[in-house]
């Protein structure tokens, strides 16, 4: 079942849900947004992105981050958005890509290696 919804970000977000209401596909179509990692906790598996356009912070789950680095405060990112069930009134970032690592910050890879920038 495909659902379409006009969000407060001014776009029509779509998703595919299975019979239990779970997302089975991410936002494969739609605009790509830019933002900065506000906070991310590897141990908790989630964090927040501050959008470049000034809207409210966007939730991001560890499973939606692409690439080899764990996001750090100040990292520039691109992302798409997808509504959060069950009410679909808020959005989360998906297909998150780190585009510019924060300078003068040590970054960790998902395998645990520390890289200085």
UniProtKB/TrEMBL annotation:
Q: Which Pfam families match?
A: CSD
Concerning InterPro entries, the annotation shows: Ca-reg_mRNA-binding_domain, CSD, CSD_CS, CSP_DNA-bd, NA-bd_OB-fold
Q: Which of UniProt's keywords are assigned here?
A: Phosphoprotein
The segment(s) forming the CSD domain are: 32-98
Q: Which Gene3D superfamilies match?
A: Nucleic acid-binding proteins
One GO-annotated biological process of the protein: regulation of mRNA stability
| Highest taxon listed in the record's lineage | Eukaryota
GO CC terms of this entry: cytoplasm
SUPFAM superfamilies linked: Nucleic acid-binding proteins
Q: What GO molecular function terms would the record report?
A: mRNA 3'-UTR binding
How is this protein named in the record?
Answer: Cold shock domain-containing protein C2
* Species in which this protein is naturally found: Chelonia mydas
């Amino acid at each position: 079942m495909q659902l379409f919804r006009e969000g407060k970000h001014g776009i029509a977000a779509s998703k595919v849900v299975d019979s239990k209401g779970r997302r089975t596909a991410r936002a494969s179509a739609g605009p790509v947004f830019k933002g900065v990692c506000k906070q991310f906790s590897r141990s908790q598996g989630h964090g927040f992105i501050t959008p470049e356009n000034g809207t409210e912070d966007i939730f991001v789950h560890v499973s939606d981050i692409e690439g080899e680095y764990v996001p750090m405060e100040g990292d520039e990112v691109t992302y798409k958005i997808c509504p959060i069930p069950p009410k679909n009134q808020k959005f989360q970032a998906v297909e998150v890509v780190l585009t510019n690592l924060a300078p003068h910050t040590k970054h960790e890879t998902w395998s645990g290696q520390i890289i200085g920038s």
